[in-house]
Design a protein that fits this description.
Shape: globular
CATH topology: Serine Threonine Protein Phosphatase 5, Tetratricopeptide repeat
Oligomer: single chain
Number of domains: 1
Structural class: mainly alpha
Helix content: over 70%
Number of strands: 0
CATH superfamily: Tetratricopeptide repeat domain
């Protein structure tokens, strides 16, 4: 009986740990270890707006989130992404770079910055981001795969 209780407790702890990691991953390559309870409501609303492709609202919420916590690499990354989707290239570069200044191995920011480099015809810089992801994603990751595919497509279109 005691062994059953111990197994149930360990299973519960493992389940909670995996759930928290899945919540964190919703930030587009989130690599922070912040508990989900500390995510601001503006950041959460910004994430939801990004998922709904409502980038105007995302910018509004995420701007508030980074004003409250400018050291949130995840918010900086999603703000950069939202600006990129709105065609505001300078603002996108600014926020991706802020995210990477805070966390140089941020998978989402490295992927999205690489994609922005491709959009602006800077293949070599996109490949640099891919190299960073290769080192950051020890066992491989979705961000590496997506940027690699974007680089391969970019090269194929220019042959």
């Amino acid at each position: 009986m005691r062994l059953k209780i111990q197994i149930m407790i360990l299973t519960t702890i493992l389940g909670l740990t995996l759930t928290q990691k899945n919540i964190m991953a919703a930030g587009g390559g989130v690599t922070s270890s912040r508990p989900s309870s500390s995510i601001s409501s503006d950041f959460a609303k910004g994430q939801k707006a990004v998922k709904a492709s409502d980038f105007q609202s995302a910018v509004r919420y995420l701007t508030k989130a980074v004003k409250k916590n400018p050291n949130n690499a995840d918010a900086q990354n999603l703000l950069g992404y939202s600006y990129r989707k709105l065609g505001k290239i300078d603002e996108a570069f600014e926020h991706y770079n802020l995210a990477l200044k805070l966390n140089p191995k941020h998978r989402g920011a490295n992927e999205y910055l690489g994609e922005l480099y491709l959009e602006t015809g800077q293949l070599a810089k996109a490949e640099e981001r891919l190299e960073v992801l290769d080192k950051a994603c020890i066992r491989g990751c979705e961000e590496y795969d997506e940027l690699k595919e974007a680089i391969d497509n970019y090269k194929a279109e220019r042959k």
